[in-house]
Write a structure and sequence with these properties.
The chain is α/β, with parallel strands linked by helices. It has one domain. 27% of the residues lie in helices and 25% in strands. The chain contains seven helices and 17 strands. A five-stranded mixed β-sheet has the order 1-6-16-15-3. A five-stranded mixed β-sheet has the order 7-17-14-8-9, sandwiched between helices.
Length: 392
Amino acid sequence: MSVNTMNFEQASAVLNSLASQALGDSALAATDLSSYISVGQATLRVGYDPLAIGISQMVGRTIFAYRPYSSPLSILRRDESEYGAITRKVNALYQQFVNDPTYALVDDQSIDQYTVRKPKLWQSNFYGFDVWRDVVSVTRQQLKNAVTSPEDMGRLMDLVLGTKANEMEHGRETFERATLANLIGAIVAINNSNQRVRLLTLYNAETGKSLTATTVRDPANYGDFVKFAYAKIAMVSDMLRNYSSIYHLNPTAGSIMRHTEKGDQRIFVYTANLHDIDARVYADTFNASMVSEQVPYTQAMDFFQSITTPDSINITPAYIDNTGAIATGEAQRVDNIFALICDKDALGVNYHDQSVDVTPFNAAGKYYNYHYHEARRYWNDVTENAVLFTLD
């Protein structure tokens, strides 16, 4: 499939693979996102098989097992006014200061006050989106055998359609995770040393120790290390507020200056680390809520790609290079992810053209179908500030 185009791409195969990893049905697997992620991600979506109602004839009491589900990553969602079908992002590149001639006047010479110095602008473009459809069939004859009252019919339809809504929401969440994973993979592929903090490497260098991702969790080591890690995250969070070019990709045309205030920062922290801090460190020296106090928008991540390998990703990312062209990096396996802190504009998702359409009743087969439609966009912008923390 092409990227950065106005094509309507079908994405069910990749989404099914990612959903399987997220649900724990399969292990962490190398996943190629490069064909779906343009300058900002253009996504994918799941297509589930049509539901065949296969419940037994009514016997005694029936419990309809359903509860609503919502994505924990809804913080990434944006509306169409922010990211529609075509979005351009115009950046003003940094220009150095010039000499002031006021104190260097020369007799019989004039100063040209109309010397031209045009601003240096650099534009990036976000194109296209992917479409998704799902179908649920409702059969009259089977329903007549399955339920005994209008109330049960209502509860059954709530179950069927509510479960479909949960599946749709999980599909959104799956690629919201992929959006985050792509940004992590892009940071590693771009290989800007300012954007990756290897916490153990720095800690060992400062303390003279030789801890690993396993031995650092020893009770004798963990408390001191966590305070060190928090200090590094807090320091980076503070540094992101400064006007600079070091925490993002810059085009060859010139440097883009960014600053990310606390309210515009987003931090995604691996949940197991937060639990370890609460259970093993908090009572003595450390308050885990200090992380969220440092960055107001803190999201605990139970897993980043696969629920069975929660602190790892294994993807082929897409991103823009310093010429502004789409770059497809090599496959990136990143383990021991501790946290990611980034500007709110570094990643996001957009859903639109949503509808649920019902067909007329099929007299021959005695059923009708619900058709679910949705267009989706998932995007990254590597010219925005982002820093990855890993436990290595």
